[in-house]
């Protein structure tokens, strides 16, 4: 019988596997694989949890962004309404101011007309009195004429004023 080198290699390999089984390498390898499997499962769970937290944060931030945008629109709309109200109020105040100033100007014009009319009346009276005095003094000479002129002048002054 001729025994070949490959036979010895096979026997050596079998003895090697038996020695490994005897020493318990397969349990150590199994435990290492189990630990690695548990570590991977834990990492997957952590990744899943972090992904869910990130999704929740994203949803929260999106909600806050929508709320902030809605609030900004509300503020802008409120500012527009206030600006319109202020513009309307300013317009009303300006119209009131113009109305009051116009009324004051009309009152001053009326007062000035009245005063001018009084001055014209007074001046007319003075001119009429002077003219009457000249005419009467030219027609009437003496004390009787002077007395008549004085009483006429007084009478005219009383009537005009």
From TrEMBL:
Q: Which residues form a coiled coil?
A: 44-96
Q: How does it sit in the membrane?
A: Single-pass membrane protein
| Quaternary data | F-type ATPases have 2 components, F(1) - the catalytic core - and F(0) - the membrane proton channel. F(1) has five subunits: alpha(3), beta(3), gamma(1), delta(1), epsilon(1). F(0) has three main subunits: a(1), b(2) and c(10-14). The alpha and beta chains form an alternating ring which encloses part of the gamma chain. F(1) is attached to F(0) by a central stalk formed by the gamma and epsilon chains, while a peripheral stalk is formed by the delta and b chains.
Tree of life domain = Bacteria
Q: What does this protein do?
A: F(1)F(0) ATP synthase produces ATP from ADP in the presence of a proton or sodium gradient. F-type ATPases consist of two structural domains, F(1) containing the extramembraneous catalytic core and F(0) containing the membrane proton channel, linked together by a central stalk and a peripheral stalk. During catalysis, ATP synthesis in the catalytic domain of F(1) is coupled via a rotary mechanism of the central stalk subunits to proton translocation.
- InterPro entries attached to this UniProt entry: ATP_synth_b/b'su_bac/chlpt, ATP_synthase_B_chain
Pfam families, A to Z: ATP-synt_B
Q: What are the entry keywords?
A: ATP synthesis, Cell membrane, CF(0), Coiled coil, Hydrogen ion transport, Ion transport, Membrane, Transmembrane, Transmembrane helix, Transport
- Provide the transmembrane region boundaries: 6-29
Report the HAMAP family cross-referenced here.
ATP_synth_b_bprime (MF_01398)
Where in the cell does this protein reside?
A: Cell inner membrane; Cell membrane
Q: Which gene encodes it?
A: atpF
Q: What is this protein called?
A: ATP synthase subunit b
Q: Which family does it belong to?
A: Belongs to the ATPase B chain family.
